[in-house]
Amino acid sequence: MSEATMRELEVAVWRGGDSGGFVTYRVPERADQTVLDVVTFIQRRIDPTLAYRYSCRVGMCGSCAMTVNGRPRWTCRTHVATVAKGGRLSLAPLANMPVIRDLVADMTEFFDKWRRAKGRFVPAKESPKGFARVPPADPKRRAADAGIECINCGICYAACDVVRWNPDYLGPAALNRAWTLYNDVRDGDRLGHLLAVAGDAGCHACHSHQNCMEFCPKGLNPTASIAGLKRAVAGAYLKGEL
Questions:
Q1: What phi and psi, each to the nearest 5 degrees, are found at residue 88?
Q2: Residue 83 has what pLDDT?
């Protein structure tokens, strides 16, 4: 196809901060084009001041996550042909986070909540001799494995209605992490992880809308992890442990 007959995409891109607005660009439409390819074309060929994040380009880091036509997605793994509507794209930063500039969301609060949910492994005071052996079929191991592949891309957080309504809510990624640690038999503070997520902004604030499960690019189910935390917190209270 010649340059004269090449089809173009009409791409509306968020520019500026929280009070910014959309600017429209025209980008050549190509075969097997990803949304990240489109953003990169704009930055390299049309407007070098456009700010955005990316790193691996192959769906390993999650840093290229943006809002594409109203839905949070990894742009490196999203093909234009699957999302463009009538040759149009709308690109914005992830929702539920402040905007630093253009397509770059400020994830500080996201990671602060991860820490508030006590998302750090706590070594046991008495370490086992050699490697800790955790059988793959162990129920707790399987529960932890179900959520361990989270890479903190923030898509579930951006898709969460409860975060939108309640800014204090810890969010699905942080709670999913707490669930994996609670089920890690090597962790030395399992009750501490429960206590961190037992408050008003913790696991019981989840309305189980399952947006986090629907949008997770890794196919994880944070809603199930949060349900597990609800059961564990209730059980600990009944036993007088919390």
A1: -120, 145
A2: 97
